[in-house]
Amino acid sequence: MKTTSKRCLELLDRVSEFFDEHSTLTFGVRSTALIGQVDTIADLMRSYGASQVGGFGEFRGGVAERRERAAELLA
Amino acid sequence: MNPETAPVPAEQLQRPASESYQALLDTAASFVAVLTPMAVQQAFIDRDFPATFVTDLATLATQFAGATGRKYAGRQTLKGGTLGVDQAAEKGLAVVKELNAIVTKKLRTTDPVLLGVWKAAARLEQPPRRTTGEETSTPPSPAPAPAAG
User: Fold this and answer.
1) What is the pLDDT of residues B111-146, one digit of tens each?
2) Measured between beta carbons, which residues in chain A are less than 8 angstroms from residue B54?
3) Number of domains in chain A
4) Candidates B57, B88, B102; nearest CB to A27
5) pTM above 0.90?
6) What distance in Å separates residue B29's CA from the closest CA in chain A?
7) CA angle (A12 as vertex; A10, A13 as ends), nearest 5
8) Rounded to whole angstroms, how far apart are CA atoms B15 and B28?
9) How far is residue B30 CA from its own chain's centroid?
10) Are B25 and B61 in contact (CB under 8 A)?
């Protein structure tokens, strides 16, 4: 995950924490809907971040196995 | 070609001239096709090749193709994750921007202290920036103290 994206994720976490800490604040329909989206988007970012890591691992694993099988085929 | 000494022409079993993985895979598939007839296999087995050498070769080629698939699938998952993170970050910033306008308006009159807390929470941290002057400048030396007298 890029540094910019990490900073954005941290921002979303802080915003979520703010509304958790000040749950007595009341807002209108639009704001309430937006506050509800904050956690969802943060979770989505984490999920995509996990895909990045998992995909990179799969890619590296495929590369390594290809190299091994190629050596065996040439042997 | 003498079937007794060479069951298949040697030219059909040459290593690929190219070192590319695709050439290797194509060559393996070609070898499997050439070596599959039982008479040919038997000729090699008679020359101390393992009984399963064609199957082994086919298995290796299949595993190689599988690894290639994993490599490409992994790259696509990685790319999808990267694009997803970027898109979600963009959406998240838009949500916070809209929320900032509403919350600021509300707290400005009702709770200025909490407004400060909100502003700190909703501020997107920026990477530190170094000006070119800072890199080389040294702190100024203190001015000499005036002589007592």
Assistant:
1) 999 999 999 999 998 877 877 665 555 555 555 555
2) none
3) 1
4) B102
5) no
6) 11
7) 65
8) 9
9) 31
10) yes
